[in-house]
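Model it.
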Amino acid sequence: MRALVDPGARLERIGTGFVFTEGPVWNAAGAFLLFSDMPNDVRRRWSEADGAGEVMRPANKCNGMVYDGAGNLLVCEHSTSTLVREHPDGTREVLATHFRGRELNSPNDVVTRSDGAIYFSDPWYGRTEPDGVARERELGFQGVYRIPPGGELELAVAEDEFEMPNGLCFSPDESRLYVDDTPNALIRVYDVAADGSLSDGRVFRDGIGTGSPHAGVVDGMKCDERGNVWVTGPDGVWVLDPAGERLGVLEVPEIVANLAWGGPDWRTLFLTASTSVYRIRTQVASAPLPYH
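Modeled.
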């Protein structure tokens, strides 16, 4: 851990007073962080110059966000059970709403691949209050999906692979996709073929807490440039090496829901943690992303 985070690095709270923060993503061109305040139904933006402010209300109780290689923002919306693409000119494009004729549960987190493929998780958290809108489920499972470049929505893994899939991220070379299962307190990993299909799903790491939401759970997850996996869990953020061994825990005084690197050198780690947003400098950068 000392090689990843200097022992003297300071965890700084850069915004607070929110209800529950999620979905951080860094915009390099604008030098700002976007994040969700789900129960408040607000999307917010933070920058060094202006601090935190609102950019959208209502925001369909959005959760995970990511950019694609063209600079469009992909957003998981709890209230509408929709994955959308927001273009820089403000145009809104719906990417996914239904599977096999039934409405998705509530897209939760999303990643993009360098070839333009999109992968997202679909648990049913957004069908409950206060993080979504209470309503009956139409699908009988919680899936992980892929939208190939120019293709149609497809199920990326078997229906029974996850109880509640949540955070997901690629290894630096995109040969692996990690997906966590929140109530089962574990991470699964898949091999990614050249065409983007997933195979050989197996447990990467289990025992990340108990799965209780009151103690910190596996939720948001990112890879660094060395292939280490940084995932939320009890006491803050757990750091796992590429073999799944725990290197240590970055302690945070609030329950962390998600994380994202940013800053001019992609070595500032931003943490959305309950009522606040934190940042800390790391000695390692984010894994390469299509929008770097």
